[in-house]
Amino acid sequence: MGKLKSMSLKKSFCLIVFISVIIVIVLSTVTVKICSQKHDEITLSHAFIANGAFFYPENGQYIMETPTNDTSDDYMKYTNTELLICRTMELLIVLLPVLFSVVGIGCAATCFYHIKLKEPLKALQQGIDHISNNDLDFTIDYQKHDELGKLCSAFECMRRELVRNNRHMWNLVDERKKINASISHDLRTPITVIKGYSEYLDKNTGKGTLTERGIQEIAVYIHQAAGRLEEYADSVHEMQSLEDMRLEYREVSLSAFEEEMVSQFSVIGGQSAKKICVSSELPQQTVILSTAAVFRITENIISNALRYCKEKIEVDISFSQPFLIVMVTDDGKGFSQKDLIEATDYFYKGKSSKDHFGIGLSICKMLSEKHGGCIRLDNAPGKGARVTVKIKTENLSAL
Fold first, then answer.
1. What is the per-residue pLDDT across 377-395, written as a single tens digit (0 to 9) for each?
2. How distant, in Å, are the alpha carbons of 134, 161, 163, 201 from that of 155?
3. 225, 253, 264, 312: which has the highest count of C-beta atoms within 10 A?
């Protein structure tokens, strides 16, 4: 039975049908033989020779004579019981093979259903019922290797993918809630400034209490608040654009890419009057990656490090198949425990950072994950904050 369960549907069906046919043939042969014997027992018991002839010689010739005595009619007659039995046997000889064939087909279908179909179909139906009720907390545990086993495995893979998609959607919804809460919080200050000064102007216009200098100062405050709102709106738009952005990949020589990154870091360091020390060991290899995404990630990380470092930043660039690894370490005070948990969240600023919108590291996280990598925050021993980004590349020879 176990071996039959492990067969394919086609092989198991053919085997069950073959066994059923053999059983039907054997039963039909046995029953037909038994019925024939019973029928012959009755008919042969009434067999006789009527008017038997014999030859004898006479005058050189053979003369044939037949007996003149008549056979008794009683010897030829069948009883009603004998006739019933004979007719019954004749009928069974015809009907039993047909009956056995029908029963054999039914038994073969029933066995095939219970052995090969019942368990996987029940598992699939239960899975469909769970999904229709928005319940994905179940598993389909059918480990056979036949066609329905493969179907159950595919169904289980679909369920797991639905679970991952649902978790991803819930994470997106949760992040969106956080973004909306942050937007509401950060927009409150400039809106309050604009509203307060506009109400002040409305109440004091025409009363002679406003001086020209006072009006100019109010206009400056309103303009600054409006500029803050505009910058914030641009930041929100940028985040939404990055979420929908498709990375453009191209062939890149790691050695040439290294030179380009070092040159960029030198320019950034010169503009900030801070020292950026770069160490890199990239192989002579051509890979596939999105240079725009990598440069955007490193720019944001270094810009964030420049905001907190004292004198210098150390940048280490390495390659560990298939990841390009960029590690940026500053000599500042490092990340707090809250920073380590929330610094990559949208619009997270920390307690002492009010001069930026808190999207730099969140952009790095988003782009690195889009590129198949990740970002990690920690504090370097004896130094300051350390940000490590892994960017997944594709080997050119493998494409």
1. 999 887 789 999 999 988 7
2. 15, 10, 12, 67
3. 225
